[in-house]
Write a structure and sequence with these properties.
oxidoreductase (chains A, B); two-stranded antiparallel ribbon; TIM Barrel; about 450 residues; alpha/beta; homodimer; 8-stranded parallel beta barrel; FMN (chains A, B); 15 helices; 2 domains; alkanesulfonate monooxygenase activity (chains A, B)
Chain lengths: ~450, ~450
């Protein structure tokens, strides 16, 4: 009998809550996203809850949103991932530390070196979320007037990944002999000079740091496009995805796992973790009221803008207190439009309520009791909708504490989540192999 | 009566010892330069000794030295500065954290953001050692076939500094109102868009992080050339220098402080800290024997190479056990040649001993008892040879522990070093003002 599959849980923590109203919720820390003492408390609580990893998204600009929305956003001031995750390495012992680093505006040597250093500092807990940056405001911060087109960004990302992993393999694990008698600190025969010359990069190497504890930090990706799925299938070990329903989750899971096998890899060596906002209550009604109260804190301007984007029409002329009127078909995304309409009907929402739902967080959410949330997560796991979740909290600290104190024990009771860490590295938490060194396969 | 001037002490810790034989010394930790637990112990000890700052040099390549020297070097694997200093922020409370970041191969937005993040994470203890990179091996790691020439590197560095400090000033200190009632997280009127367009950089801004705790992290430089001195006089708050004698120290001090005043700044707002290797013994003889034993661990090939460079002639044909022969004049640096000859005569050194001295560490050193070392440091302070030192340890942990346990109390007894930290930020330790925000002078 095969061992029972278990959930893997990441905590999506930049921002500390994806919900735009989170910082205003009664009892929430308004400055949580930018307070090191609060953040240290959160990651320690997540480690108490045996989470696989703390996950940091990243942005290379004050986000490109209208000023009316921007001035209400708690993401405008944030810590930088390498510095924050390194600070956390000393504050925790087991939880993984996944940071986002873009391949669009940085150099492979810097990225390889910083993740290797974080991996050594944390005893093998680093993960690299590889992204490409399409935000035009970010391009302007790096001297680019025009954004690189999508396919070119992905070609660059692919080569960037090859260079970074090649640099990580600069030294065999046994290179550093430190023989005080002979005076040999390392064996040059166990050092490889990469000498990469490609379309985008020319990088000599070697890296000036020993091979990471994990061989390579865990490779994480979030691309959903065809290019993104293919890159993930070939290179990623964790995929964060934004599917909105269990049906969409299963379709994504089936597609990506098939691509993984086609690429000659084991399907178990890539874990699929959809993002999910989780709102916990002692009763279903209480959880729904919490969600409604939270959505009610979303400013109407941002809310109507989000609804207009979803529907593909200007929603500002709709009666906010009335039901959603008939919406004409447009060239906008059909799935977004249909989802919004279905949501309004299913929950009997007014235009304002629907707009605030989408403006707060329009993606996948589990709103219920510890039992109903565990039911849903178990169904996703058992029916191959996912290998776990990248959990988002509605507000902090309460929403995070509720998940760790109430949902985690219920998952553990069912045997679908660890009761304690069994290894020390992020790879061990995720059940991923340590990659062999391509230049020193014997080491 | 003016307050008594006091020494400022940095600890030069990358590598943990500048001396190439350090890792082989009996009782030393051979892996100290790359062991996070050891390094955490060292910085805590330095904080116990009330040091102003922990200082990390940096290199962007496995150093360009012959393989015979390289394989004996403990610097070949090292932590990256942003990650290591961030890890230290949580392990310490007061000591400053100075990291080196080159302006030659990185983007101002990244550097501004990472130092701002480190400054917030550490509660205002960050310092930026601004360097330009001339190592041709480093250039090859970033796709450059040729090294940029000296003056061009300095022009780029100057503009880089302007952009970074401009980005740090993106927000007024009072910008983040976090008003849960109105929903305004920050006041857009208190945000400045830099819109820099210059010779080397086009950077829009704003930075996506609040203004650093210190306003700006402390600006540190080490340039000794005319360009370097002038840049330091205009922009630096700490200068690390490699002068080799108190006379050279006074000449440098007089020149740079005059340039500072000519640039319209207070001479007290730039601190000059020469690097100095300090070897402590209970007697003068014991200290000298320690130094000789340490120098004896330097490999002859590296030693003779260092001597040849200093003299400007090939020293490999000299009798290693004989005295230094007559050396012809060449086009090489006169001061290096004269210093080597004077050193050999003054201490009656054989060719091998002289070569090992220069190959271990040829710069300024204080070798003696806590009293004679304190005498020397006091003379440098009182006669304006320096404002303190960037201390290098001969080996660790013993050399570092001896300085903190024996030399620091002697300096404190004389009233020329603090008995405890009086402030919480690096600026406060150094007696430096918090820079006003150029865009929000009222804040």
């Amino acid at each position: 009998m095969p061992a029972q599959r278990r959930l893997h849980l990441g905590a999506f923590m930049r921002p500390v809550s994806i919900h735009t109203g989170a910082w205003r919720y009664p009892g929430a820390f308004p400055d949580a996203n930018f307070n090191i003492a609060h953040l240290r408390r959160f990651i320690r609580k997540l480690e108490e809850g045996k989470f696989d990893a703390f996950f940091m998204a990243d942005h290379l600009a004050v986000l490109n949103m209208p000023i009316e929305a921007l001035k209400r956003s708690h993401t405008v001031t944030s810590f930088e991932p390498f510095t924050l995750l390194s600070a956390f390495a000393g504050a925790t012992e087991r939880i993984g530390l996944v940071g986002t680093a873009s391949t669009t505006f940085d150099a492979p040597f810097h990225i390889a070196r910083r993740f290797a250093s974080l991996d050594h500092i944390s005893g093998g807990r680093a993960g690299w979320n590889i992204v490409t940056t399409s935000n035009p405001d970010a391009a302007l911060n790096f001297g680019h007037d025009e954004q690189t087109e999508h396919a070119a960004r992905y070609r660059r990302a692919r080569e960037f990944y090859e260079v970074v992993t090649g640099l990580w393999d600069s030294f065999a694990d046994d290179a550093f002999v430190r023989d005080t008698a002979s005076g040999f600190y390392f064996d040059p025969e166990r050092m490889h000079v990469l000498d990469h010359k490609g379309e985008h990069f020319s990088v000599r190497g070697p890296l000036n740091i020993a091979r990471p504890v994990q061989g390579w930090p865990v490779i994480v990706q979030a691309g959903a496009s065809d290019d993104g799925r293919q890159l993930a299938a070939e290179t990623a070990e964790v995929v964060f995805t934004a599917v909105n329903s269990i049906e969409a989750g299963r379709a994504f899971y089936t597609d990506v796992k098939a691509r993984v096998e086609k690429a000659g890899r084991s399907r178990d060596h890539l874990k699929i973790l959809p993002g999910a906002l989780v709102v916990v209550g002692d009763s279903l009604d209480e959880a729904r009221e919490t969600r409604a109260r939270l959505d009610g804190l979303v400013h109407e301007a941002s809310a109507i803008a989000a609804l207009s984007i979803a529907l593909g029409v200007d929603a500002s002329s709709f009666d906010p207190d009335g039901p959603l009127p008939e919406v004409p078909h447009t060239n906008a995304s059909k799935s977004g439009r249909e989802r919004a309409i279905a949501l309004a009907r299913a929950e009997n929402l007014t235009v304002r309520q629907l707009a605030q739902r989408l403006g707060g967080y329009g993606g996948l959410s589990f709103v219920g009791t510890p039992q109903t949330i565990a039911d849903a997560m178990e169904e996703w796991l058992v029916t191959e909708g996912s290998d776990g979740f990248n959990v988002m909290f509605p507000f902090v600290p309460e929403g995070l504490d509720a998940f760790v104190d109430k949902v985690v024990p219920e998952l553990q009771r069912r045997g679908i989540f660890r009761r304690d860490y069994e290894g020390t590295t992020l790879r061990e938490h995720l059940g991923l192999p340590r990659p062999p060194n391509r230049f020193f396969p014997d080491a």
